[in-house]
Amino acid sequence: MRYGSIVLANQHPDMLSGIRSLLSTEADAVLMAVDEASLVEAVRKVIPDLVIADLSFPVAGETNVVKLIKQCNPAIKIIILSMHDDPTVVGEIMKDGADGIVLRQRAVVDLIPTVREVFQGGRYISMNHNTGRKP
């Protein structure tokens, strides 16, 4: 099943191209944002169905990228890529409005199941020790 449009927000071009190729069979369009300005423009003008953003994506004036995206459009679904699976960090990200979290080191295994779960209205958290859990 193909889903709508996805914006990838990551400041590392190699990571972007790898994730984009993973998603090529899942989405009608995959757009890339490498800085805050291009992410905000995409969220406001393109109005994607999903944003996949790196937790360390630099944003000014907000504590994290989830809050920035939700300010631009509260209805957009968000999956965060992160190096951290600390319960405090995960809880904060989910409280801020993320629909899923995928550990970067598990992206090849967990990203597509997370995208599918989120597009079906669920939430998904990738874990180091297994394939993930639905909170």
SSE layout and pairing:
Elements: E1 3-9, H1 13-23, E2 27-33, H2 36-46, E3 50-54, H3 65-72, E4 77-82, H4 87-96, E5 100-103, H5 107-119, E6 124-125
Parallel strand pairs: 1-2, 1-3, 3-4, 4-5, 5-6
Gist of the model:
With 135 residues, the protein is of the alpha/beta class. It has helices at 13-23, 36-46, 65-72, 87-96, 107-119; strands spanning 3-9, 27-33, 50-54, 77-82, 100-103, 124-125. Helix 4 (87-96) links the parallel strand 4 and strand 5.
What descriptors fit this protein?
6 strands; about 140 residues; six-stranded parallel beta sheet; single chain; 5 helices
What does the model show?
This protein has five helices and six strands; from the N terminus they run βαβαβαβαβαβ. The chain is α/β, with parallel strands linked by helices and 135 residues long. A six-stranded parallel sheet has the order 2-1-3-4-5-6, with helices on both faces. 33% of the residues are buried.
Strand portion: 15-25%
Report the C-alpha radius of gyration, rounded.
13 Å
Net shape: globular
N- to C-terminal separation? 24 Å
**What value does the average pLDDT take?**
87
Q: Helix fraction? A: 25-40%
Structural class: alpha/beta
- Low-pLDDT runs of 5+ residues are none
Topology, number of strands: 6
Largest sheet, spatial ordering of strands: 2-1-3-4-5-6
The ordered string of helix (H) and strand (E) elements is EHEHEHEHEHE
Largest sheet: 6 strands, parallel
Count the helices. How many?
5
